[in-house]
Give the backbone structure.
Amino acid sequence: ALLAAGHRLRAQDLGGLTAVGITAVRLRRRPRVTIVSSGDEVVPPDREPGPGQIRDINTYTIGALVREAGGIPIPLGIAPDREEPLRALAARAVSEGDLAVFSAGSSVSVRDITATVINGLGRPGVLVHGLSIKPGKPTILALVGNKPVVGLPGNPVSAIVIAGLFVVPAIAALLGLREPPRRTEVTAVLAKNVNSVPGREDYVPVRLLWQDGILRAEPVFGKSNLISTLVRADGLIRVPPDANGIPAGEQVTVRLF
Amino acid sequence: ALLAAGHRLRAQDLGGLTAVGITAVRLRRRPRVTIVSSGDEVVPPDREPGPGQIRDINTYTIGALVREAGGIPIPLGIAPDREEPLRALAARAVSEGDLAVFSAGSSVSVRDITATVINGLGRPGVLVHGLSIKPGKPTILALVGNKPVVGLPGNPVSAIVIAGLFVVPAIAALLGLREPPRRTEVTAVLAKNVNSVPGREDYVPVRLLWQDGILRAEPVFGKSNLISTLVRADGLIRVPPDANGIPAGEQVTVRLF
């Protein structure tokens, strides 16, 4: 074979194919990724939020990540925090998607509803409920039959970080790619101390800036429900689980967005 | 402003916009990039080439690079090596495209025709004809009015290398991006000597392989008309103009495709 299965077609590969007169190839279908947001407080972005309400962000950020990874995002809308309506939408998500992504409400009771609903859809159900990752603790990883299901945290920053760690590689696997997608990485000098708790993997957004000929990574601190922290950031650094932080002045690898 | 002009919208930026209820934004239009292949010997890829004929490769490889860079490729077909018909297609390319890309025949006489035709379309015309770059010597850079025009070498490998150096950044400029697109780079140990001529910038395709825990970059040697050399390669290394090569064992930066 000119090109092995699982190869991502680059410009020169199309050239190699046309050179020998191959003008049509069988490709792996782009995976359909259904997206369900949930939460009584979540309203569509074109609506003015009332007291205690917030606009739906995750449908759009996760949709963009899905598209970038080679999948087709299929947003199914916003489910309220009750088992019955959430179950109906979740069943549709699992049947219509090659991969189903839920962005659960952030309160513990609501997360439990999501896990209960996923378990009710079929076996084996929830495999992982909770990760030693910050942000991203309330993540759910599940299988309904052979369909992968990811329950993202409701907080927009956590949802993006966890989607990068689990949804993007799942799409690459569904695409049959031999290699996971590569994110551009740069090396920089950490500009401020980053604290962490041993036993937990931390992802910290950083902004890059050149200063006196040195590329510096400045942590962008902020709550995980503030999407603006990621808007101001250029990438993420990872604090490994066995560390209790990274001191200012250390070299760090920044995974660019 | 939430986001400055010239910003490439990432997933979190869409989130930042929806968070404040902005559901529509004004975007820079994707540049239309017209592509003309030329050469009496060039036939469409679905046709069986006769003696001395070759299938058109550049329309498809350059089209893929244009799309990847954020442009809209508009292939205009294959022009014969005569001024009149080439002029007609070239005039259409410049009027319909925000950027016009010609992939000229490889013989000197044909390159001269391309330059003559571009000069005939309007001022200032051809600005650069020939570069100290290998592969890519017969490159033409031109302006017709305020429309950028790039004349790529006809050899498929040269065409891809030169398109990466000039067409991709031109599209980024037309998109108004503040930063040129970043290609992923990795550091590797050169596995074989690479020879070069001082005064000339060389781009050498390399294949990456892990060997005894070391990432090695193995040069893929081959003629610049053999697209298969790039199909087998993972990236390019650059030999700067002041060097007469890079010895095996040196650390090199590989720009991945």
User: Anything to note?
Assistant: The first helix of chain B runs from residue 11 to 19.
